[in-house]
Structure formats: structure tokens, C-alpha cells
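To: structure desk
From: M.T.
Subject: fold request, one chain
Message: Could you run this one when you get a chance? Sequence is below, nothing fancy, just the single chain.
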Amino acid sequence: MTEVSGVAVLEQTVPVFASEALQATTAESVERRAWRERLEQRVLNPLANTGLAYWIWTAFLLAVIGWAIYAYVTQLEYGLIVTGMRDRVSWGVYIISFVFFIGISHAGTLLSAILRATKARWQLSITRMAEFITVVALMVGALFPLIDMGRPERILNLIFYGRWQSPLLWDILAITTYLTGSTIYLFLPLIPDFALCRDRLGPTAPGWKRAFFNAAALGWTGAAWQRQALERAITIMMCIIIPVAVSVHTVVSWIFAMSLREPFNSTVFGPFFVAGAIFSGVAAIIVLMAVLRKLLHLEEFITPTQFKALGYLLGAFTLIMIYFNLQEYVVTGYKMSEGVPFHFEQLMLGSLAPEFWFYIVGGMVVPGLIILNPRTRTIPGIVVAALLVIVTMWIERYLIVVGGFSVPLMAYDPGTYAPSWVEWSILAGAFALFALIVTVFTKLFPMVSVWEVVEHRGPEVVPQIQRPRRAAPRVVDHVRAERSLA
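Reply: Done. C-alpha cells follow.
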């Protein structure tokens, strides 16, 4: 009788469990579809609608760029005498900004490639922003050597008559390779989203946009063989781009380290520059992510999870940068070779002391404390830490370049340097150009990789539905036990 009643209970219970599980699965699928529709709407809305504020902002950026062009024309007309550079301090804001922009380009593609390789899913909603920073920063940074030459047509002499022994030629090859690879690495994950724009925005978009989306989608239909080919291509580029990214800023550091100037005579400049590049690059990603999250209303898809993860990464590189600075200054200061006492005095007590101590305290100590403290490890706190890092890392390049060239090579007075209005204007134009390219990009390309977020991540928070399915096996086991005893 017990067995019969147990079987009766089992026959009545199992359909109930199956029905509840089906309802839960259906509810979850409905919730996921609604989440996907919200994601597509938020991402595609900036491509379809443009407000007055967008045009005002674009006009402002164009005005700043126009002023920078006027300053550059003045430099072409009168020569580099209009800058603060002279024969003793022959590198200034231009080379400083070149190193800075090449630096922030590293974290984008490099971070994206490393996180793809480790299959980290939290970063999928910010991957495109990171990869785009790389391409834009390389494009803007590559302009500064041309501006610094004074006579830009002489770049042809470097191409046709350049010596392969020169780190300058290595730098050109490394940056060109990195820009080409990063552009391909940016374009490949865009293909499915171009197809999404083609299908969703086609009927309402202008004719040139429809033609652009149709051509850029490359006939994407989402077939299985297309997905396999795309994943394979992304994996190949991921494996290529990581060593290329590391090599680029290593070569940039060799421009300094392979000279005979005492402040540059360091064997750790390569890893020091790479660490500094990733440090400033992560900070740039955080700032851009915060701005676009607010302006494009992506709060549901770019959450505190991404900010905290990048904040931890920024904190880790804060410790790495502290280590490298200790390594550099302790070892050099212990030996105190010729020229080092003057260099240390100008950095720590002299004309460059305010910038040096602001770099040490504001660029490493304060950001590290902000990230270590749970109360300040919030989105605003992490953004403030990132802004401090960006400013102070530009200052760090200033200290390297100007501080190094100020040390006398012979028995003459130390060199001095103060940037002129021409240099500041061109620097402002460079930042405006960076912002303008980002602004235009938001109207042409989805800023979040929709297909990757949908396929590999999904909603960050899924409602937990109580499912009593676990009780079924226990009932079955109980009935089987009674049967075996009988």
C-alpha cells in the first residue's frame, strides 16, 4: 500500500515540477528578450537621432581645431622659433604628447586582447570603447613627430634615406604595424553590429548611411560558418596584437634609453614605459567609459562591475609604477654619476619640483588610496582617480623629456624650457581632434558590441526563480528504495 501511495505521489508531483520549470524558463526567456531589445535600442538610438547639443559640441571642437591649425600655420611661417624649444632643450610639448598618446593607446587593444584570451566576460560591454581608444590615440599621436620636425616634408628623408640602426625608424615601423593591426582588430567585431544597423536602421537612415552599413557588413547573415570564421579571425588578431602592443612602447622608450644622456641611460625604460602606457591607458578607458555611459544612457549595460574591475587594475598598476619609480631613482641615486645630482635637485627641490611631487602624490599615492578604500571605490571615486592618473602621466612625460634635456652635457648653463602659446594651442587641438573623432564615431558605429554581449554575457543580473526541481530526484530515490526493500 505504501508503494502504491508513493507512486501516486510521484505521478502527481513530477508534472507539477515540469510545469513550474517550463514556466520559469519561459519567464526567463521573456526577460532576456526584453533585455536584448533594451540593449539594441540604447546602442542604436545615437545612430538614428541627433540633438542640438551634439552640433554645439561638434562646433566647439572644430573651433579649437581651427585655432590649432592657425597656430601650426604660424609655426610653418616663422619656424620653430615660435615654440619654447631651443638647441639645449630641443624636445618639448610635441614629443611629450607623442609619448603620452602612444601610451594611452596601449591599454585599449592590449587590454581587450588579454581579457579575450582569459575569457573574461565582464569587459564585453566596454571592449569596443577600449579598442577605439587605441586607434584614435595612435592617429593623433602619430601627428606630433611631423609637427615637431618643423619641416614636415622632411619625413620623406627618413623614409627614403633612414638608417636601419636608428630607433626613430624602428618607431615608425612599430607604430605603423600597430595602427594597422589595431584597425583590423577594431573592425572585425564590428561586422555583426554593422549588419544589425543595416537591418534595423536601413529603412529610416539616410542613403549614404544605408550604403555604408551595407558595405561594412560584408554580407553578414549570422550563419554558423560566418561565426566560426569571425571567431577564428579575432583569435588570430588577438594573438598577434599582444606582442605588437608591448613592442611599440618598448621601441618608443628606446628613443630615450639608447641616447647618451645620463637621465635617459636606463635599462628599465622599456618595461617602465610599457607599465606607464597601460597605467594611463586604463585611466583613459575609465574616463571615456564614464562619459559615454552618461551621455548615451548605458547605465544598465555599463555597471559598477566594469568600473570596479578596471579600478582594481588601475590600483595594481599603481603599485607597479611605484615599484618602477623606486627602482629608477634609488639605483640611479645610489651611484650618483655625473649629471645625476643636478637632475635630482631640479626634480625634487628645483624648478621641476612642483610637477614632480604632484606626479608622485597625485598620480600614485592618492589614486591608490581612493581605490583601496571601499568607501571611495565608487564610480565617481574611480573616475577621479583616473583623471588624476591621466594628468600626472602627461606630467611624468614632461619630467622625463624636459628634465633629461635640461641636464648640461658640457660646461655650460643648464637649458630652460617654457611652452609657447603655439605649443599649447596645438596640444589643445590634438585633444579636440581626439574628442571629435570619438564624437563622430558615436554617430556611425555602435559603441557597445551588441552581439558579443548578447551571446557571451547576457544580462548581468538575472532574477532568481525558485524551482523545486531538486525535490523530484529525492522522491524517485525514496520510491526506488522502497521497491528494492519490498
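Reply (cont.): The chain has one domain: 2-460. Let me know if you need anything else for the meeting.
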